[in-house]
Design brief:
Elements (H helix, E strand, L loop, with lengths): L1 H23 L11 E6 L6 E5 L11 E8 L5 E2 L9 E3 L3 E3 L15 E9 L2 E2 L3 E2 L5 H4 L6 E8 L2 E7 L10 E11 L5 E6 L3 E4 L7 E12 L2 E7 L3 E4 L4 H32 L1 H8 L7 H8 L5 H9 L16 H10 L1
Antiparallel strand pairs: 1-2, 2-6, 3-4, 3-5, 3-7, 7-8, 7-9, 10-11, 11-14, 12-13, 12-15, 15-16, 15-17
Amino acid sequence: MRPARLWSLLLLLLLGACAAADALQPDSLSQLPAPQHPRIRLYNEEQVLSWEPVTLSNGTRPVVYRVQFKYSGDEWLTVDTSIGVNCTQITVTECDFTAASPSAGFPMDFNVTLRLRAELGALHSPWVTMPWFQHYRNVTVGPPENIEVTPGEGSLIIRFSSPFDIPHTSTAYFWYYVYYWEEAGVQKVKGPFRSNSISLGNLKPFRVYCLQVQAQLLWNKSNVNGHLSNTSCYRIMADASTKLQQVILISVGAFSLMLVLAGACFFLVLKYRGLIKYWFHTPPSIPLQIEEYLKDPAQPILDALDKDSSPKDDVWDSVSIILFPEKEQEDVLQTH
């Protein structure tokens, strides 16, 4: 009896080993390796699934890929034109759910699960399932776009567009923050704002201010902070009161300068009036006849001078005879 029991035990062990080997042997239709390192990119409105390609050492035909999805509690469905993108038996290693149109892709507030496998004829790889995602919960929010800054009188006016469009603002929306600081100064923050146009006031004129803008996505009592925009700096213009102060200061300064110059000139005139009188005194001039004689001594200049100095007959228009009384005439004679 013992040899029979021993043979029975050996037979059972052999059958168990064969069953285990059959269980460990892969399915004949699952001979392809699974795609490696799948990843989902959720940036703004983008929804992209990508992976590394499957390479075969002796394969002559290209490997194709199939992507399926399901919502929470639903069955697996093939990613086809029903959602705007076809990811069935594709040769590329990427499935872009937002490439077809802005309305393509999965609803941003749905739980979505994706799985992926490689196919080659009748062969296929095992499914690779990614963790579920919810776009509004897992998205990476970029900075606001198309930022325009207009320096004003003691202010900066900032206009921009949202990182991406939200179809239903009743369920999700953006808050905006502005980080600003005077050059080499302390950073300040202003916000939140719902508007895409923000005005920063009470800024010091003629100073340089730098700023960054940030968007924050709010959805279902949760928020996702976005990336900050690039830093940009602007010089502040003077406001009306500052311009008036400038005009007054310039006028007062010019008037004061004129007074100082006038006082300095008056002091110099008093101190150096002799020298100034000497500078401005007309030098004596040589008579014209002598000047001509000095130029040409052969001229009879002396005769001309004697002729000019000869007495001439006096000419009167009228003659008056004045008579003195005798007493006054005697006084006149006595004085002579």
